[in-house]
Write a structure and sequence with these properties.
Helix content: 25-40%
Number of helices: 12
CATH superfamily of the largest domain: Translation initiation factor eif-2b, domain 2
Radius of gyration: 20 Å
Distance between the termini: 37 Å
Shape: globular
CATH class of the largest domain: Alpha Beta
Order of helices and strands: EEEEEHHHHHEHEHEHEEEHEEHHEEEEEH
Number of domains: 2
CATH topology of the largest domain: Rossmann fold
Strand content: 15-25%
Number of strands: 18
Bound molecules: 5-S-methyl-1-O-phosphono-5-thio-D-ribulose
Structural class: alpha/beta
C-alpha cells in the first residue's frame, strides 16, 4: 500500500546484504513514520512482544524472518539445530494469541531441521521467510477480492448509496504484509469506485483503530470517521452501519473467532440489529486443532500501564499521560472470543464460508483429519 504516495510493505529484507530485516515501527504512527532495522533474533522477539510490529499476519511473517536470523546466528557446528529450537521457543513465547506466530515458526523449524548443511539451512530459511511473506500478501489480496463482493452487493441493494462499514482494531495492511484482511475488501471496493465510508473504533487500550486504521485509510484516500469504542451500538440502532468487517487472531475449526478485545460486544450489537458481521482472515489464522474458542484459545494479558496511560502528540512530541488514579488496579485482556453463532461469514483467501465446521472444511479439505 502507499505512504505519502510511495509503495511500502510492512516488513522487508534490507538490500543488498540481506542480513537485516526492516520494519515500519508502528509505535510511532500516526505521528511519525519510522523504519527500523532488526539484526538479531532478540530484536525480532522484542519487536513482536513490545508491538513494534503487530497484527496476526505480520507477527507470523516477522517470526518467519526471525527464524531466518536465527539460522544466520546459529553456530555452524553440531549445536546448530539446538540453537534453532531454542530460538523457536523464544519467538513463540513473544505473544500467545495469534496462531500465525506458531504456524510460521513451526513451518520454519521443519524446513531448517530437514535441510542439509548449515549453509543450506540458512538458504532454506531465507526462501521460507520470503514465501511466508509473499503468501501473506497474496492471501490478503484475494480476501480483498472476495470481500469486495459483499460490499458491492450492499451497494447495489442501497441503489448505489454510500455503504457504511464498521471495523474494530487494525486488521489493515499494517497488520499484515500488504492490503490487510478487514480493510482489503474496503480498498478493493474503493478502487472500483463504490461509494463507501468506514467507522473506525478507536480500540482502547492501545488505540490501533484511532492511530493505525485511521492513518492507513487516510493514506489510501478512503473516507472514514474515528469513533469511541462505545459508539458502535448506537450507530447500529440508527441504521448508520450496513456491515461490520473485522479481522481475527485465531479462529477455531468450528468458526469461533478470537480478535481484539471489544469485538464480541460489536458482534452482539450487530446481531441485535440484524447487521451482517463478517470476519476476514487468511487460513494461517485458523487453528485446525481446536473446536471451542472460549475454552481453547489463550488470551494474552498485557501490562496494566497500557490501560492506565494514554499516548499522543503534545506540542510536537509524543507523550504519555496518566489517566487513572495511580493506585487503582487495572486489567488488560488483549482479546476476546466471538462465538461462531454471531458470525455471518468468514472471508478467506479461498472464498467466503459460514462460520461452521463443514463449511470451513469444504473450502479447506486439506486440513481435514
Ligand atoms: O494486539 P494487536 O494489535 O496485535 O492485535 C491484533 C490485531 O491486529 C487485531 O486483533 C486484528 O483485528 C486482527 S489481526 C489482523
Amino acid at each position: 500500500m502507499y505512504v505519502n504516495g510511495k509503495h511500502y510493505r510492512t516488513i522487508w529484507l534490507k538490500e543488498p546484504d540481506k542480513k537485516v530485516v526492516s520494519i515500519i515501527d508502528q509505535r510511532f504512527l500516526p505521528h511519525r513514520f519510522v523504519v527500523k532495522d532488526l539484526h538479531s533474533v532478540s530484536c525480532i522477539v522484542r519487536a513482536i512482544s513490545e508491538m513494534h510490529v503487530r497484527g496476526a499476519g505480520l507477527i507470523g511473517v516477522a517470526a518467519g524472518y526471525g527464524m531466518y536470523l536465527a539460522a544466520l546466528e546459529a553456530p555452524a557446528d553440531g549445536s546448530f539445530d539446538s540453537f534453532i529450537k531454542e530460538a523457536a521457543e523464544r519467538i513463540k513465547a513473544a505473544r500467545p494469541t495469534a496462531v500465525n506466530l506458531s504456524w510460521a515458526v513451526d513451518k520454519q523449524l521443519k524446513t531448517i531441521l530437514n535441510a542439509g548443511s548449515p549453509s543450506e539451512k540458512v538458504i532454506a530459511a531465507l526462501e521460507t521467510a520470503k514465501e511466508i511473506a509473499g503468501t501473506d500478501a497474496e492471501n490478503s489480496r484475494k480476501i480483498g477480492q472476495f470481500g469486495m463482493e459483499v460490499i458491492e452487493r450492499i451497494s447495489r441493494e442501497k441503489g448505489g448509496k454510500r455503504v457504511n462499514i464498521l471495523t474494530h482494531c487494525n486488521a489493515g495492511w499494517l497488520a499484515f504484509v500488504d492490503y490487510g484482511t478487514a480493510t482489503a475488501p474496503v480498498y478493493t471496493a474503493h478502487e472500483k469506485g463504490i461509494d463507501l465510508h468506514v467507522w473506525v473504533d478507536e480500540t482502547r487500550p492501545r488505540n490501533q483503530g484511532a492511530a493505525l486504521t485511521a492513518w492507513e485509510l487516510g493514506q489510501q484516500g478512503v473516507p472514514h470517521t474515528v469513533i469511541c469504542d462505545n459508539t458502535g451500538g448506537h450507530l447500529m440502532q440508527h441504521q448508520m452501519v450496513d456491515v461490520v468487517i473485522v479481522g481475527s487472531d485465531r479462529t477455531t475449526r468450528t468458526g469461533d473467532v478470537a480478535n481484539k478485545i471489544g469485538t464480541y460486544l460489536k458482534a452482539l450489537a450487530a446481531k441485535d440489529n440484524g447487521i451482517p458481521f463478517y470476519v476476514a482472515l487468511p487460513s494461517s489464522s485458523i487453528d485446525w486443532e481446536i473446536e471451542d474458542g472460549l475454552r481453547d484459545i489463550p488470551i494474552e494479558e498485557r501490562g496494566g500501564e497500557e490501560v492506565k496511560y494514554i499516548e499522543g502528540l503534545c506540542e510536537g512530541e509524543i507523550k504519555k499521560v496518566l489517566l487513572t488514579p495511580e493506585e487503582s488496579g487495572v486489567a488488560n485482556y488483549g482479546f476476546d472470543v466471538t462465538p461462531a453463532r454471531l458470525v455471518t461469514g468468514l472471508i478467506t483467501e479461498k472464498g467466503i464460508c459460514k462460520a461452521e465446521k463443514d463449511s470451513i472444511f469444504k473450502l479447506f479439505p486439506e486440513f481435514k483429519k
